[in-house]
Amino acid sequence: MMIRSIDSVIRMLDADYIENSDIEEMLMGVCIDSRKVVEGNLYIPIRGVNNNGHAFVKQAIDNGAKAVLWERREPNPPKEVTVILVEDTTKALQDLARAYRNQLDMKVIGITGSNGKTSTKDIVASLMAQHYITQKTMGNFNNEIGVPLTLLSFSQNVEVGVVEMGMENLGELSFLTNLVRPDIAIITNVGTAHLENLGSMENIARAKVEIAEGLRDGGMLIYNGDQPLLKDALRAAQLSGGIALRSFGTQQGNDYIVHEVCQQKEGLSFYINDVACHLDMIGKHQAMNATAAWIAAKALQVCEAEALKGFESIEKTGLRNELVSFDQALILNDSYKSNPQSALAALDTLEEFDIPYKLAVLGDMLELGETSDQIHYQLGKDLKNYHLQEVLTIGDMARYTAQAAFNELHDVYIRHFVNKEELYSYLKPYGKKECMILIKGSRGMKLDELVDWLVKGE
């Protein structure tokens, strides 16, 4: 975490202040949630759509905040601690993170993509940790608030920082990458996530390539070379600054080729060029994410033996392709996000397991735009390529998936549910059956709650 005196923070922000306490006192990290403030924090009250963090400053101080940022337009600044005056606390958070990042002598790896950002982050961090003091984005803190908080969470002695960066519109990734200033950037892929906002796959590719704008001179961009849209966007971007390009994929012509991918109960085996690898994760698509991480590790002189060891000890972020025991059954919990590409990848993973009875629980895929009904219907048609005994859907759009599945699958039980409670009641007895249940949906569907209910027996 950032450890700086109050005076140092004032100078980093070039801000005015109200000195209610000793400005030589040390601050121990930052916090934007008054409920989670601990002794020594700098409290940064964010003005949101529904809440204004300034209203909770007393709670923050009671919990141990030693100083606060404060927007000038806000009345009644606190008198108990030093108040650092700013025009906008969100911008001040970002400015503070930028200043702190520039003070740290570390290499930064930035990661974006429609799918696989978080898994790739976890793999990269594991490989780097075999050789360097490494920290990474916790959870999915990958937006204009989360990325600054990630940077400010890094310790003074960190050697490699791994930062996940998300986006929903053009220009957002450009802002984040210029805040992070990565030495290495990874684009995992281009998919239909955020199609509703961006309008076309070409625009999604353009938005992802923005990550290169913040690369330091002499940096490296690692990208999925199997996707023509991404290659076209890279050519159009006309990258400068001596940036090295490295591609990965399953197709010939890539710098690093993934092949002979095999899902096993104990993990994933595959080759990167001529190197045999084993990854402590499930899902064949993870071999692509692992290859991107491998390239980054080589670029920072992590040796082959260290990288291979890193593949075996991934500290995984939850709700993504995780196996959870449900009495005698297994749940493949992939409930954090969903789009057509990640849904098919999850179904591919389910297919790899030699379990006699399989159920696919499919919730809405959000933010797909005007063609969302068609995309959901196509997913239902694609289910004919899998050996499923039941297809269970939930959500307004998932009705189209159920409809297509009903038309395509004649020996499969298909049912649509109107709420999670009804679905839970249906699934609860399956804990006594040897079966595997895939639970897949966008975050807004909150299907992780369903997983919790099943596992905890609530």
From TrEMBL:
Stated role: Involved in cell wall formation. Catalyzes the final step in the synthesis of UDP-N-acetylmuramoyl-pentapeptide, the precursor of murein.
Class of the enzyme per the UniProt entry, highest EC level: ligase
Membrane-spanning parts: none
Binding site for ATP: 113-119
Pfam family, one: Mur_ligase_C
GO cellular component: cytoplasm
Name of the featured protein: UDP-N-acetylmuramoyl-tripeptide--D-alanyl-D-alanine ligase
GO molecular function, one term: UDP-N-acetylmuramoylalanyl-D-glutamyl-2,6-diaminopimelate-D-alanyl-D-alanine ligase activity
Catalytic activity line of the entry: D-alanyl-D-alanine + UDP-N-acetyl-alpha-D-muramoyl-L-alanyl-gamma-D-glutamyl-meso-2,6-diaminopimelate + ATP = UDP-N-acetyl-alpha-D-muramoyl-L-alanyl-gamma-D-glutamyl-meso-2,6-diaminopimeloyl-D-alanyl-D-alanine + ADP + phosphate + H(+)
Protein family membership: Belongs to the MurCDEF family. MurF subfamily.
Subcellular location: Cytoplasm
HAMAP family, per database record: MurF
GO biological process: cell division; cell wall organization; peptidoglycan biosynthetic process; regulation of cell shape
Domain Mur ligase C-terminal: 320-443
Occurrences of domain Mur ligase N-terminal catalytic (ranges): 29-101
UniProt EC number: 6.3.2.10
Taxonomic path: Bacteria, Bacillati, Bacillota, Erysipelotrichia, Erysipelotrichales
Keywords: ATP-binding, Cell cycle, Cell division, Cell shape, Cell wall biogenesis/degradation, Cytoplasm, Ligase, Nucleotide-binding, Peptidoglycan synthesis
Pathway assigned to this chain's UniProt record: Cell wall biogenesis; peptidoglycan biosynthesis
Domain Mur ligase central stretches: 111-297
UniProt KW Cell division keyword: yes
